[in-house]
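Co-fold these.
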Amino acid sequence: MNPLQITIEAFRSMLANRLRTLLTMLGIIIGIASVVLLLAVGDSMKRFISKQLEQLGTNMLFISPGGDRAQQQRLRNGAAPALTMLDAAALNRLPSLAGAAPTLQGGFNLAVGNENASKTVHGVTPDMFKIRGWKIDKGSAFSDADVRSAARMVVIGRKIADQFFYKIDPLGKYIRIENVSFQVVGVLYGEGKQVDGGDLSDYVLVPITAAAANLVKMQFPGNVHYVVAQGKSGGNLQDAIQDINETLRDRHRIKFEQPDDFRIDNLASFAETAKTISAGLAALLGLIGAISLIVGGIGIMNIMLVSVTERTREIGIRMAIGAKPRDVLLQFLTEAVVICLVGGVFGIVLATAAAAAITATGKFDVFITLQAVVVACGFSSLVGVFFGFYPARRASKLLPVDCLRYE
Amino acid sequence: MTAEVGSPLIDIRGVTKSYFSGGVETKVLFGIDLAVPRGDFLAVMGQSGSGKSTLMNIFGCLDQATGGSYFLNGIDTLTLSRAELATIRNRTIGFVFQSFNLIKRMSVAENVALPLIYAGVSRAKAHAKALVELERVGLKEYAKRTPNQLSGGQQQRVAIARALVGDPPLILADEPTGNLDTHTSEEIMRSFQQLNQERGITILLVTHEPDIAAYSKRLMRLKDGHVLYDGPAAEGLREMALGQEAALGHPPLPPHPTTSVPAP
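Predicted complex below.
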């Protein structure tokens, strides 16, 4: 009996029991759908992370005050040295760094006319625009002179501009931040998640000095919340970290045996963490897929055993008219594989729909890759062969005389 | 696999069959000897439990004898593997069963073509040959229907077409009229006679009805696993009727016109 003939027969017996076949397939459908989705999500996640990293900027180092937990506690009580504007200025002069800029930040009430909302306000220096790669859409950023004079200027994200100055040119207008008027001098270009979790289009940027004078109350004047530094492109980031470490320890007069009173975080290591998390998520999805494939496979084995029993007489007839044990084995094996493959195709369709649904939310783009489809098909036929073999073998071992007697 | 010319198609010597269950041996056949030459039409008769079905299964290579020898078409069947036996059944034997044994999911034509498919014939060729055989039994126009849409007699004719599609030298018919009314039974038996006479096909028929056995040339009667009679059909049947008369104590009923043996 040729393979085409066997496949045709397998499809027919599948269609003879539609509901049962569909229910049997369900496990395989869910299993394959989650395997395909896992591959697609894993892939998209990788792309997403590298895109995010591009947005965040490369070679970025985050320097925050407080080394260990105890120090962070003392820092909160104002009993430990923090990072200062002068620290940032010293780091800015390091040859291994492209730049270093301090930040003060806090949540404040913004108001224009009757419109008001609570937003995170960042006090920064012009250097920060360079380091973070922020671009100006309209107007301009504030200058070093503006920082020195603590000018009450503000650069706002696109969304803020839309919210407070709908269809009006915001340049030259005033925003009250905690009832202090700041003049809008620029609107940021673009949007996208920033390292602090905020969106660029939702940013409110003022000169750090103006923030210190009017908004953020620090216990010690000159202290900053954190410093962002950028390693020289092409330079070794580890060297830059080493330089920052030495400079700050020196400035903070930390003795040789004492621990650091600051932390240097590498954005690349955040990316590593994100990758680890996404790998974990993929593993979880994979586990779900594997479990439902196994459960589905057992379901198929069960149904195939039922089918063999139900069709004992048919097996007897086929054997009587010339089916060899191998023909019977292949027939039932093919049936199991066909159920799995068709289930696999449904699974791929389901996964594609799910991917489209995820993509439609706009947060995350998921594409089903060809590789995922090939893997899914391979997997599902493997399940079919593995779980279909025992029932098929059992059918092939039946004796024709017993089968023909079976009622 | 070539048969010796002149050798009997079926040649069994001292065939025994025992069933074992729970370590207890139940003997069903006690040393049967039988030679069936090509072109013979043999009816095997016996009451249930006489071993006729067991013998038939051995003839059909559906079951293996416990002892003795069985040469079919010159081939020693007791030494063959299951796959080889399948090939023998496919090439040498056409089966006709009491319950027709058609596969309900498949169309009539597909049922008839199936032995050829297992023989490795292409789909198109097998289908064409199936239609030829269906035409011979007068059911060509039913080719696309399923067996359930046919009457019992029609289904049995489909089964005969299926038995003949591979041009086997032997047809084994196990109670072929058991599920059919008298009129249809006659039709079926006449077609067996025709096959025997016109195409020279050897026919082995199992039945418990003397009327049906009457269509054969030769009769073998089995009782409790032993051969009771082996000889010309007419004589054997007469002997049987006399035996019944003796047992019942009254003369046999006058023969019904439709149950009389047709003239050859």
